[in-house]
Amino acid sequence: MLADEEQQRRLDMEMEVERLRALDAYANRDVQRRQEQRRGAEILREQLAERERQREREEDLKDMVRQRQDATCLTVLDVLRIAWQYAQQHAADGIDLSHVLSQQHSAACQTAPRRAADGIAVV
Fold first, then answer.
1. Of 22, 24, 49, 97, whose CB neighbour count within 10 A is largest?
2. Model-level pTM?
């Protein structure tokens, strides 16, 4: 009977050791899972930050193109305004330059934005 009790105690101890090993393995897997989740979350944050930086760069580039287009159109329009004033001042001489200036104005407004988008400075 003592041998049976001793064998039962040994089996109980082995089961307890096995249970503790299983709990330890479960705890280790849980720690690894949490670390992987943190790494995944960090990667997502980095990707989101990179996408935001990319959007900002694209928006800055669009703003630069818009500003260049605006500056180009203003420069061309200023030249045309001066030419128009010159034409009006010399209208008394019988020279009609209005149709030429109108054509130049139309051409300038059509080509200036396209040239600015291509990076060509129009002055």
1. 97
2. 0.46
